[in-house]
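Q: what sequence does this backbone want?
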């Protein structure tokens, strides 16, 4: 005897498989792909049933209320209020149901789990570069664990690209000078194709990468091996290698003199302190509030006058054209690493003195 409802589950699985074959859809390899496909199937089946009902009613009306010969008249039909309510209510109910399911998935997609693995993705004519906060860096190969949420933070070094994985049903633009994000959870181990879905130049069609999904224990082994190799190269036993992203970011804050205006220990200075800045709610001069996430921090580097924190002078220069996408991501990772032991983040305080010329 099967478990209760196992027959229904089997029927639904068979129906999904048939619909995928009929619609020439690739297998759904992520949790998001499953949700999107089911919403897609609901809309298609609802449309088919409604279209069948409309054509059947039209055929009946053509026969029942056809034009009569001679003096024979066509019978007059006066709809009752419940019929009109049914005709309006049923389509409206299905529309609201589809809207609810779509909006629910939209909200779900834009709120990644807190334990998601972050990977920085940089698009460049015509390649994809993937950077893990603790190392390593990969070109055209993204490796992720099966069954674990992964958040991608995307940017571009030149023009607009679009990160597209057909089997995962996910697509997100990568924009120069800012970060966008999306997250997914792979449900099947294997290799999947990554494409660019935004025309970006003469070799746009060749801008491809591979997404490898490993079982959790295999991914842990892969990551440990790459980090050991990275550490060995840093120790001088091999060729030159880039340090982990947070350390890169620390060096970049020195190179670009960020610490002339910002502190890393919570003390007040010309600009907001970096300590506990990540995901802190900041009140702006406009009266609005903003969360200091990756997108806001990157925007503040590229267009610092767009959202000025209340109590601070708008004196920060723009680093647009000076900081590349990976460099901005490294500084963000350094800011994320500056966390205090206290439960409540340090609130932003105004400058202790005005810079020269103010």
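A:
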């Amino acid at each position: 005897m099967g478990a209760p409802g196992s027959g229904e589950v089997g029927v639904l699985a068979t129906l999904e498989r048939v619909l995928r074959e009929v619609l020439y859809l690739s297998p759904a390899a992520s949790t998001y792909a499953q949700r999107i496909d089911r919403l897609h199937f609901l809309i298609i089946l609802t449309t088919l049933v409604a279209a069948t009902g409309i054509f059947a009613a039209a055929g009946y009306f053509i026969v029942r209320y056809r034009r009569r010969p001679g003096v024979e008249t066509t019978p007059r039909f006066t709809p009752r209020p419940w019929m009109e309510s049914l005709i309006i209510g049923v389509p409206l109910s299905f529309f609201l149901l589809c809207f609810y399911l779509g909006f629910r998935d939209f909200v779900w997609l834009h709120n990644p789990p807190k334990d998601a693995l972050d990977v920085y993705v940089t698009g460049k004519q015509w390649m994809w570069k993937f950077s893990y906060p603790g190392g390593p860096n990969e070109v055209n190969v993204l490796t992720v664990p099966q069954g674990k949420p992964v958040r991608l933070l995307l940017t571009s070094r030149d023009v607009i690209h679009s990160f597209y994985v057909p089997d995962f049903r996910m697509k997100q633009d990568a924009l120069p000078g800012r970060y966008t994000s999306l997250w997914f959870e792979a449900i099947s181990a294997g290799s999947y194709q990554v494409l660019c879905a935004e025309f970006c130049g003469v070799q746009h069609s060749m801008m491809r990468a591979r997404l490898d999904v490993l079982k959790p224990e295999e991914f842990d082994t892969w990551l440990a091996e790459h980090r050991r190799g990275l550490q060995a190269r840093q120790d001088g036993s091999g060729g030159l290698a880039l340090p982990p992203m947070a350390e890169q970011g620390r060096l970049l804050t020195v190179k670009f003199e960020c610490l002339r205006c910002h502190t890393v220990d919570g003390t007040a200075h010309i600009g907001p302190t970096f300590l506990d800045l990540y995901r802190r709610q900041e009140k702006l001069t406009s009266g609005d509030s903003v969360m200091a996430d990756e997108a806001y921090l990157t925007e503040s580097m590229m267009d610092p006058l767009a959202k000025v924190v209340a109590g601070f002078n708008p004196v920060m220069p723009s680093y647009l054209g000076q900081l590349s996408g990976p460099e901005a991501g490294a500084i963000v990772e350094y800011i994320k690493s500056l966390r205090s032991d206290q439960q409540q983040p340090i609130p932003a305080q105004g400058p202790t003195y005005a810079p020269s010329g103010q």
